[in-house]
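Job type: complex structure
Entries:
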Amino acid sequence: MRRFTWFNATALTLGFAFLYLPMLILVIYSFNASKLVTVWAGFSTKWYGELINNDAFLDAAWVTVQVGVVSSTFATVLGTMAAYVLVRVGRFPGRTLFSGMIYAPLVMPEVITGLSLLLLFIGIGLDRGIFTIILAHTTFSMCYVSVVVSSRLVSFDKSLEEAALDLGCSPFTAFRLVTLPIIAPAVISGWLLAFTLSLDDLVIASFTAGPSATTLPIKIFSAVRLGVSPEINALSTIMIGIVAVGVITASIVSKRAAVKQQQDEQAAARAT
Amino acid sequence: MAQTVFAPWEDPNEKPLIQFKNVTKRFGDFTAIDNLSQDIYTREFFALLGPSGCGKTTMMRMLAGFENPTEGQILIAGQDMAHVPPNERAVNMMFQSYALFPHLSVWENIAFGLKRMKMPTDQLTNRVEEMLRLTRLTKFAKRKPHQISGGQRQRVALARSLARAPKLLLLDEPLGALDKKLREETQFELMDIQEKTGTTFVIVTHDQEEAMTVASRVAVMDEGRIMQVATPAKIYEEPNSVYVADFIGDVNIIQGKAQKTSADGYDIHWADGHEPFHAKTSLGLADGQTGFIAIRPEKITVSADKPEGAMNAVKGQIVDIAYLGNMSTYHVKIPGGLVIKAQAANTRRLSRRAFTWEDEVWLSWTLTAGSVLSE
């Protein structure tokens, strides 16, 4: 084990401060009694109470969750299919082009993605609202899903699928009964990634949202333009809390599963 | 009553279960299987033996239906298999990596193929239990594959592939992942199970000892062609080419010019100024043609003096001794620089060994000990 030196300690502190100080300030001021964001006037939870009564924020939150769940589900289905084709089906004409095109949205500036979708929706006369946000989010998050799932599929032992075929499965049944359960963790993390991206997204959503549906990031952004209110700090703190709980739970669960697997394997090796 | 020897390949009335008819398989420019024809019979334990890249795995994958021949036909029980997908073949395969489904228990792994057949539940349960008993896995039925040892996984893979009672079972390097001792035990288990179930087994292996132990016939392959197909004893005693002789076990190859001396007797002139070696073969060699004598180390006798009346004898010097416990291999350099390996059982204690490094010894063997080969 490495020794704990002053240099290490300083580097660690600075690094963590850089990452978490802004968030810490936000959390602290969400409990500020004063209406002025930068002046501390004692501890209070009143902004949380006001938040619950703010229908505009609650509506936006509900739209965001709906968009997140539906779009990440579509993105997961499409992204998994794309990944499967790219990894499993050998060479076919235009394979390189196809795989390049799948990953292009990853590096495409969001403004351009948003603008092009906006033009498309106007062109085909689709009214902007929750449906168009879902479509837009599905489009850009499916390539993230496809990256996550295909990296799992590359290390997937192809003979497992062959064994399923050999034991009487049709190719689709083999996928459903063998491939999918085994790659499920990657598919789930792909879904979570897509969901997070959808929750985060401001740029694409503001291009594709209509007056009938606004997502939370759009709402926060427009509210902040009129001045930062402690209410927004409270809302952001709640979001940080939800994300933190999610991430910590996921890592504890996967760590426990890994430890258990390792113990089982050691036990099996001893039993030989 | 005399026991009849199992040799359906010698019976002209026997119908083969598998027929390869002029099968060629190419991957791009690479020819994996080169115009190959071969029959395999019901209840056979047929081994495909060869170095990696010789096409043995491709042959097996074509039988399973994962690859289609580029040219030629494969028939199983008389039916052309060209457009039959793997899930509709009465063929099951045991994979080299075992390919056990990690998310299913041992029981569910074995039941997997039966469920696809829509077997009624009570029948299915009986069949799975029977398979568990056959492979001595009853205790482990509820475990997941990562909770059992390598040897047990191997048996699960075998049980799973046998559960559907296939006409033909393919085994791809089935024992490769096991250590030597377990491998030897499992070889006998495999033979036992093959006999009990009466299934035709085709095994792919690069381990010649394994092929010799388990198989009724061995096919030695090289570069997409079968070099020789015969019983293990015949392959060992009467290889048809230097390649086969060299691939199976240890062998000394002595090259020389052949000279016919009688109906089936030949002299092989291996070095100028030395007496030729004498050997018998049914092979027709022309006078002056290059011939090879292939002789196994254990068939050569090492002695201090020239044995009287020996058909073949040559003097040499010991350059190396490999002590293997039960026997020793002497590396003896004969005139012309060729090193001949000769094996002798260590019937006496090591300290009393008759020969040591640098000793001059005589090597001798009988007329029929070696085989004469032309290529």
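Summary: The interface with chain B takes residues 157, 159-160, 162-170, 173, 177-178, 181-182, 261, 264-265, 267-269, 271-272 of chain A (CB under 8 Å). The domain at 46-227 of chain A is CATH 1.10.3720.10 (MetI-like fold).
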